[in-house]
Amino acid sequence: MNDLLSLAVQGKPLEFHYKNNYIKLFFPENGKVRMRKVSTRSRARPTGEYPSWKMGRMLQWESHNELNAFVLLDANPDVQAFSEQPMRIEYKIDGVLGKHFPDILFLENGTLHVCEVKPKRGADKEEVRIRTEFFTKYLPKLGYSYSLVTGEELSGQLQLLNARTILKFGRIQIDNVSREIIRVYFLTNDSISWLEDIHTNPDVDIRCVLSRLTLEGGLVLDGSERIGRESLFRVKTNETKRMN
């Protein structure tokens, strides 16, 4: 069990009963990081592994929608950790028994969220809708929020394109000299552009520096356009210290 899952079960109840309905949670055992394996060569639909810089390991995905979700979570500095296939939920809703394997568990600003990712056609099914409404209402009783996100919502986001760009350049660790140059720059400037020419060292790519500081939460992209030459980055409010 990884650190996120250990946090998820620590001091929390694993069952909730309401009238004739219930929710029961089951987590990986014996050191496993996920409830079930999803990345295999024998599957008919695409599966794969995503190299998360935040989690420091490969996360398994079983749809491109899940992969997009991983990218967004990995690039979001407010998300401290996330994990795939984190639990099994056994439930009873109005006499109907079922099992559910949520796609993602993530920790954002100290709050645990359980997330299911489906294409819209799957999300619109009555059994999924009923289950989602039930979990959204009652899973917080066990210490988790619950949401269903459609693949169409994820793939259509400009945020996804920018997240991929930030991760492309930001995975590289940056040196303390680069951090200091950016810190000093912001003493007299409110923003810095994507291709600002402030580095005298030709081996340092300003895009890598800005992206890494954005991933760490020190900087934030100014505006809602796709990252390009004129894109501006600003110090995130009350976060100047993260650049040091």
Textual characterization of the structure:
The chain is built from eight helices and 13 strands. With 244 residues, it is an alpha+beta fold. It has two domains: 3-155, 3-Layer(aba) Sandwich (Trna Endonuclease, Chain: A, domain 1), CATH 3.40.1350; 170-243, Arc Repressor Mutant, subunit A (Orthogonal Bundle), CATH 1.10.10. A hairpin with a 4-residue loop joins strand 3 and strand 4 (57-61). Helix 2 (64-75) packs across helix 6 (158-170). The radius of gyration is 21 Å and the shape is elongated.
* Biggest sheet record: 4 strands, antiparallel
Please identify the structural class as seen in this structure: alpha+beta
Question: What is the count of DSSP helices, taking H or I runs of 4+ residues?
Answer: 8
Helix content: 25-40%
User: How are the strands of the biggest sheet laid out side by side?
Assistant: 1-2-6-7
Number of strands: 13
Question: Any idea what the radius of gyration is?
Answer: 21 Å
Summarize the structure.
The protein is α+β, with helices and mostly antiparallel strands and 244 residues long.
Primary descriptors:
single chain; 244 residues; alpha+beta; Trna Endonuclease, Chain: A, domain 1; Arc Repressor Mutant, subunit A; 2 domains; four-stranded antiparallel beta sheet; four-stranded mixed beta sheet; 31% helix; 27% strand; disordered C terminus
Q: Topology, pairings included?
A:
Elements: H1 3-9, E1 15-18, E2 21-26, E3 48-52, E4 57-61, H2 64-75, E5 79-84, E6 88-93, E7 96-100, E8 104-108, E9 111-118, H3 120-123, H4 126-138, E10 145-150, H5 151-155, H6 158-170, H7 176-185, E11 192-193, H8 206-216, E12 219-222, E13 232-235
Parallel strand pairs: 9-10
Antiparallel strand pairs: 1-2, 2-6, 3-4, 5-8, 6-7, 8-9, 11-13, 12-13
